[in-house]
Amino acid sequence: METGKLLTERVADEIVRNIIGKELKPGDKLPNEFELAAKLGVGRSTVREAIKTLVSRSVVEIRRGAGTFVSARSGVSEDPLGLQFLDDKVRVATDLLELRFVVEPRLASLAAGRSTPEQLDELMQLCDACEKKMLAGEDFSSENTAFHAAIARASGNIVVPNLAVILCGPPSMLPGMPSRQAREEMARTNREILTAIAAHDGMAAYDAMLLHLAQCRRSITEQSLK
Amino acid sequence: METGKLLTERVADEIVRNIIGKELKPGDKLPNEFELAAKLGVGRSTVREAIKTLVSRSVVEIRRGAGTFVSARSGVSEDPLGLQFLDDKVRVATDLLELRFVVEPRLASLAAGRSTPEQLDELMQLCDACEKKMLAGEDFSSENTAFHAAIARASGNIVVPNLAVILCGPPSMLPGMPSRQAREEMARTNREILTAIAAHDGMAAYDAMLLHLAQCRRSITEQSLK
Question: What domains lie within chain A, and their CATH numbers?
Answer without folding.
Answer: 4-70 (1.10.10.10), 83-224 (1.20.120.530)
